[in-house]
């Protein structure tokens, strides 16, 4: 699937956003290694809890058994490119350190970067290994 088609799916998912508080709608479409696409939208609750579109798409894919991901497209309408928040950057990097991130620019195009560019010094689960605790790297 090409990136423009994936972005179209992200724009379509944006329309499903549950954002009564912020009115800020975001959609995401995650392309898995096998070609399957999972979409997500941001979801806010009445108690101001919520989750971003990127994590909804990722968690849907993970819950369906997917483990390898190629590209995530993110759309937020005419606001221009909205890059993933810190929590999404961490989670996306943990499950897909090679992931491409295609951000809708709100003008019909997109920008493309690797998740590692958004998250250059991630907390790595390898640091939890006691055998590594005295190492700097
Ligand atoms: Zn987020």
What distinguishing features does this structure have?
Cytidine Deaminase, domain 2, 5-stranded mixed sheet, two-stranded antiparallel ribbon, 4 helices, 27% helix, globular, binds zinc ion
Biggest sheet, open or closed, and with what strands and sense? 5 strands, mixed
Rg, nearest Å: 15 Å
Number of structural domains: 1
* Mean pLDDT over the full residue set: 91
What is the fourth-level CATH superfamily?
Answer: Cytidine Deaminase, domain 2
Number of strands: 7
What small-molecule ligands were found?
zinc ion
Q: Helix tally? A: 4
CATH class: Alpha Beta
Beta content: 15-25%
Across the major sheet, the strand order is 2-1-5-6-7
Topology overview:
Layout: H1 3-14, E1 27-32, E2 37-41, E3 43-44, E4 50-51, H2 53-63, E5 69-75, H3 86-95, E6 100-104, E7 110-114, H4 115-118
Parallel strand pairs: 5-6
Antiparallel strand pairs: 1-2, 1-5, 3-4, 6-7
Give a structural overview.
The chain has helices at residues 3-14, 53-63, 86-95, 115-118, and strands spanning 27-32, 37-41, 43-44, 50-51, 69-75, 100-104, 110-114. The chain has 137 residues and is of the alpha+beta class. The strands form two sheets. The chain has a five-stranded mixed β-sheet with strand order 2-1-5-6-7. It has a two-stranded antiparallel ribbon with strand order 3-4. The radius of gyration is 15 Å and the shape is globular. The chain binds zinc ion. The site of zinc ion has 6 residues, from α3. Zinc ion binds at residues 52, 54, 84-85, 87-88.
């Amino acid at each position: 699937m090409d990136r423009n088609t994936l972005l179209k799916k992200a724009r379509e998912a944006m329309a499903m956003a549950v954002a009564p508080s912020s009115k800020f709608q975001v959609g995401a479409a995650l392309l898995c290694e096998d070609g399957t696409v999972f979409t997500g939208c941001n979801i806010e609750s009445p108690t101001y809890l919520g989750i971003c579109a990127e994590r909804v798409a990722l968690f849907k894919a993970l819950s369906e058994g997917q483990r390898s991901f190629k590209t995530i497209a993110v759309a937020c309408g005419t606001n221009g490119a909205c890059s993933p928040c810190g929590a999404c950057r961490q989670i996306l990097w943990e499950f897909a350190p090679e992931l491409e991130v295609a951000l809708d620019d709100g003008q019909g195009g997109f920008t493309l970067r690797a998740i590692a560019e958004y998250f250059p010094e991630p907390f790595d689960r390898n640091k939890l290994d006691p055998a590594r605790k005295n190492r700097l790297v």
